[in-house]
Amino acid sequence: MPAKFRLSDLNPAQRAAAEQIRGPVLILAGAGTGKTRTVTARVAHMIAEGVPAAQILAVTFTNKAANEMRERVGGMLRKDDAKKVTVCTFHSLCVRILRVSIDRLGYKKNFTIYTGSDQTGLVRKIITRKAGKDENLDHNLALSLISRSKNKGIPVSDRADSLIAEVEQAYNAELKLLNAVDFDDLLILAVKVLAEHPDVRREWQQRFRYIMVDEFQDTNALQMKLVTALAGEEQNVCVVGDDDQSIYGWRGAEISNILEFERFFDDPKVIKLEQNYRSTTPILHTANSIIRHNIGRREKRLWSENPGSDRVRVVAMPDDRIEAQLVVDEILEANATEKRPYDDFAVLFRTNGQSRLFESKLREFKIPYRVIGGQSFFDRREIKDLLGYLSVLANPDDDVNLLRVINTPARGIGATTVGLATERSRALGRSVLWVLEDEGFQKMLPPKARGAVLDFLAFLERFREPMLAPSAPFGTLFAKMVDEMDFIEAMRRTCKTDAERDSRHRNVSEFMESLRDSEGRRKGLQGFLDGVALQQDRDDDDIEKQQGVSLITLHAAKGLEFPFVYLVGVEEGVLPHKRALEEGSRDEERRLFYVGITRAMQRLTMTFCSSRIRYGEPVPCQRSSFLDELDPTYLDLHSYDELAAEPVEEDHALSYFAQMKAMLSEG
DNA sequence: ACTGGTCAACTTTTT
DNA sequence: GTTGACCAGT
């Protein structure tokens, strides 16, 4: 074993956690308490104690966390051991199980995974079909209701005749017909196949006899079921989490999984990690003061040995443009005078849309930056089109993607022909592709359309076999396809501006390159498509290598840390978000705020605006009520004017803060 | 069947 | 400020 690993490097609590190898273990790891370090040390310790590396499964919630853990484990173990440890997300674990065994549940193994926009598209279509286009049942609402009920195993509405119930039924039935599954299905079906087929269950239980789950506070009921199913009799389950950082309730996460862990596993060993190695006392103190307002937590007291030299700042800004300007100015200055690399800075915000202004300001000043998370590369239209072709090749039942690509680029198969085909497909209960191939259908078409359809079918057919062959050079082949249909030229023609043309063209090139890269990884076209659906391939190489200021949503920031953090847009309605307040999840918003604060290592600045541009119009806003919940001991309140002019003395700032507070409590 | 234009609606967070 | 849905003209 490499010399890097010594149990004596851990503090007593961490060490206790690493040494408890067998039986159920619950590690309550506050923010910045060396969680990943402890977990990786635990893996190393297990292997040192003779546990075969291949029997260890570490499940995380996000790919980012999985990648990080894989890297850390790799640094601590011999290379061949490290490779044998399985580190993956819940969803990719489910895909693994299902690609082998989903046929037991009546699906075909070449199922397609429907993500975000595929789902919305499908639901939207169903809503208009069921209710006409004037009906404005919000498709996002419908989807989230459907998702929630799928996870809980109960129908959306008790009234079977209600529109939403109809939509739900149609959605699920249609998915099955398309030989497609959504994210919820991945969990549901994996749990189902394990529950209903003891041989499958036994196989996986024997494969993974030691299970670790990271970010356990984000698991939902199904994920808990999956863990229990895999754990088997031995119950070598170690979960790590922090209820104060539970921020995925809206997605069905059950905070009770961690709060009531004892209900699921007998007599677990519970270990708390409370020493924080990340942040200074002012930052931690401020963080503790906000999370105290939540009830029903597992009490933790985070402390730090680092007194730090900076107080926490709260800055009032006139509007969001100036907010971006000031933050960028400060970054520029700290980089110039303190020689701080740009990677030391992060701008954190509640909603994706808030990153735009910062992006353009940073570009303006030629400061390198990276956007973490945000709109996926794979959601761009041109990329979805290309993915559509690949999906149709892999799964001929995938009507949604077939319809997406059937006339992109335009090839003479217009709305009339498509309408005819879908109608017949519904009538016969066959896939659209099946209908197109049917001679009876072809005879109904006018000669021109028939020719176009035949050409299209021949085109697909020519590539299907070669692309799906076990070790096919599918990237190279697909490049040929794209070339033959003149995809790029057609796309360029539909672009309005030169900039758009360039960016789309670049995207296509990048996509083709990543496709060709994955040829070498031996997972086949199917593996590539899985990776895309699970967001695994999201150029994490690229983004890791990229340097510069990080722009991140609060959700995506969990697990990360930065010396200098700007938490922007701390306004009522943004953080806490208006929609969240309507749903009554103020506590979760508070945890989100807490997560944001605890990302900061040295210096934390929070800003709020008096006015913000929304939909192109300025809208007045107010500081967040969360700011009033903070303990002011380590807090300085500044106005933009002060900061823009001269740095203020601390006592002045303090009295300003006191004044402000007094004013607020009066009103 | 395709193109280009106007208009509306929209932004919570993500595997 | 962006994206898509819809419509009228070629």
Briefly summarize what is shown:
This protein is α/β, with parallel strands linked by helices and 667 residues long. The strands form 4 sheets. Strands 11, 12, 13, 14, 15, 16, 17 and 18 form an 8-stranded mixed β-sheet that branches. A 6-stranded parallel β-sheet has the order 3-2-6-7-1-8, sandwiched between helices. Strands 4-5 form a two-stranded parallel ribbon.
- Total of helices: 32
CATH class type of the largest domain: Alpha Beta
Number of strands: 18
C-alpha Rg (nearest Å) = 27 Å
Q: What global shape is seen?
A: globular
Helical fraction equals 40-55%
The major β-sheet equals: 8 strands, mixed
State the separation between the terminal residues, measured CA to CA: 64 Å
